[in-house]
Amino acid sequence: MSPLGARTLGRSPSEVALDLALRHATYLIFLAVILYFGIQSPAFLAPESLGNVVKQASFIGIAAIGMTFVLLTGGIDLSVGSVMYLAPLIAGFAMEAFGLGVPAGLVVAVCAGAVLGAINALFIVRFDVIPFIVTLATLFLFRGFGTWLTSSRQFDFAPEMRAFGLSSVLGIPTPILVFAVVALAAHVVLSRTPFGRQIYALGNDAEGARKAGVRVGVVKGSVYVVSSASAALAGFVLIAQIGRLDAAFGEGREFDVIAAAVLGGASLFGGVGSAWGAVIGATLIQTVKLGLVFAGVNLYLQPIMQGLIIFVAVLADSLRQRRIAISRRRHIRPSA
């Protein structure tokens, strides 16, 4: 049982309420933001506006789901923005050279992303280099390789690519469907498979997981492959909506992705987070961006608002970790 959620015996109602608020801080923030912008501009709550929020949040959300896998192990992946640029670019070259269709191009992009993630995993697991240093280096390496391939020129995809990005199934835009499929698959993996349980075990106690028979190196390396494959898919989904790729594509997106995952409840200390949380976090960021437009707020305030929300989420995570530690100490039974 969770130290925060399960052990309520002998605790005051205020302590229980605080624990519940900390556990669901992201959802409370999300609800408050929706209500605030809805009051400021009722048009914001129109189905078309809300659908647009989810559609625009889809590519960040897909990458944030992959990032959640990494954060659950206590790691970090700073290279996702560059992977979002390089992997779809490789797919674009393959589509142009071999006449591949959009579905095949999508597969190539995801496979290229997985290979890039394997490069990160190799240095992190095999050579035991700190994930921050490895992914910071590959952030520049992957983008540099992409700009060398294109000579910093814009790469235009075939018209079929944009047709795919603007298509819909039963009235639901394709980017939202891809987002939903990725979120559902990630949820099943994390909550219903041995691999998911091993990820949580690794994030909570790496040494304990190793003693329990978990192949720590394999699990740790796998999450970076998942993260980069998700980032590649995210980049492909966004490019499908605009039809082109330039040298600045994906630049700085790693911060949006990490922010979305953290806002979704993923702990920077590892062991806490979920796929649905990443969905909420990405949607929350886009809700703030679009809500400021509807409310007529100066757009220069957008980074400030986003920063404040992230700060509140990180503060809630820190308080939650502290209360978990206190609760665990409180319930340690003395030896006989």
Radius of gyration, taken over Cα atoms and rounded to an integer in Å: 21 Å
Largest sheet: 2 strands, antiparallel
Mean pLDDT across every amino acid position: 88
**Count of strand segments:** 4
CATH topology: ABC transporter involved in vitamin B12 uptake, BtuC
Alpha-beta content class: mainly alpha
Strand order of the largest sheet: 1-4
> What's the N-to-C terminus distance?
24 Å
Secondary-structure arrangement, i.e. CATH architecture: Orthogonal Bundle
Short description:
By secondary structure, the chain is mainly α. The protein has helices at residues 13-23, 25-40, 47-72, 80-98, 102-126, 131-150, 159-165, 174-192, 194-204, 206-211, 216-242, 253-263, 275-294, 302-330, and strands at residues 155-156, 168-169, 172-173, 244-245.
Tell me what you see in this structure.
The protein is mainly α. Helices cover 74% and strands 2% of the residues. It is built from 14 helices and 4 strands. The chain has helices at residues 13-23, 25-40, 47-72, 80-98, 102-126, 131-150, 159-165, 174-192, 194-204, 206-211, 216-242, 253-263, 275-294, 302-330, and strands spanning 155-156, 168-169, 172-173, 244-245. It has a two-stranded antiparallel sheet. A two-stranded antiparallel sheet has the order 2-3. A hairpin with a 2-residue loop joins β2 and β3. The chain is globular and about 65 Å long. Residues 1-8 have low confidence and may be disordered.
